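Raw record, unedited: Amidohydrolase-related domain-containing protein
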Amino acid sequence: MTDIQPPLPSPGVGARRKGPKSLPKLPLSVFTPPNTGASDRFPLPPSPSAVHPQSVVDAHVQLEGTSLDAWKAESAESFGTKIDSIVVSLTDVNTQDAQKVIQGLSGDPSILAVSISFPLEKGVPSSAPAPPLSASSSPRICLSTSISGSSPTHVEGISWALGQGFIVDMHTAVGGGEAGWEILEDVIGKVTESQGDRKGKIVLSNILPPPHPLSVPIVKLLTHPTYVAYQGHIASLSLSNVYIKFLPPAWGESTPQASLNELSKEAREWKRRVKMYLGPAVEAFGYQRIIFGSSPSQAANAASNAGAWYEIARASLAELGLEQEDIDAVFGGNAKSVYGA
């Protein structure tokens, strides 16, 4: 009797069974212009100017005083009509004043969350923040802290905040050298270890892109110590509970002018530099854990230009050849999954 082998599954069936989405590996070609001799069988991706998020969640909006008017004016032309919701950063406001500001913002349905400065470097507080600053408040309250060194009390404070259900916005101020990266790795590693199986969410800023001197020519940046350190350490921070904000960088200058139809000479230079940092970050974190924000990190000490940064950030991502679902994630979906959960 002849054994009858079961039929092989249709290739179409296997193709429809999607497993976990693997992190993208970016070819070197994303940094070079396409070959003009490409045939019709290999169509070029859409023009970067044609790739836009369907909606935007701005995950880092700094107030001017207690008003959103300045941010609305900056963002109006570039992405104002696409705004779904925002995360307000009150990192330069003390806790008592933050309560008043939050009460004034609580009626605005566009505010997804508010991030406030909290002295986590002092360790576990004697009592948890009272409403409207509790983890269960509406809008959601996140605690912000700046990392400039590693200490047991700071680790204890961050671990306590995560255990209380707070998202911790961690602003890095450790410099761009090997020692600074090792401090950051040490803090995040100890905090994550202390959480066990229940890991709270940490969101890093002032790291994509990280600070570096614009005086370094872009042709020499690949071998510059700060870039070499970035390449060597960014993947070590990519733990499952760690996210990274894509914010205007601390490069010693305000964000240059940029619009949909035209990037200034300075903005094009920024875009080239930004793409150099985006590549390693995307390979380490994937598009699922990178979050767009339009205001600089508190550690950056730079002037805001929300609309110009949106255009530079959008064009930089688009030129990596990402799909629509990926740009929608970076500019909206990821922030909602973190701050809206």
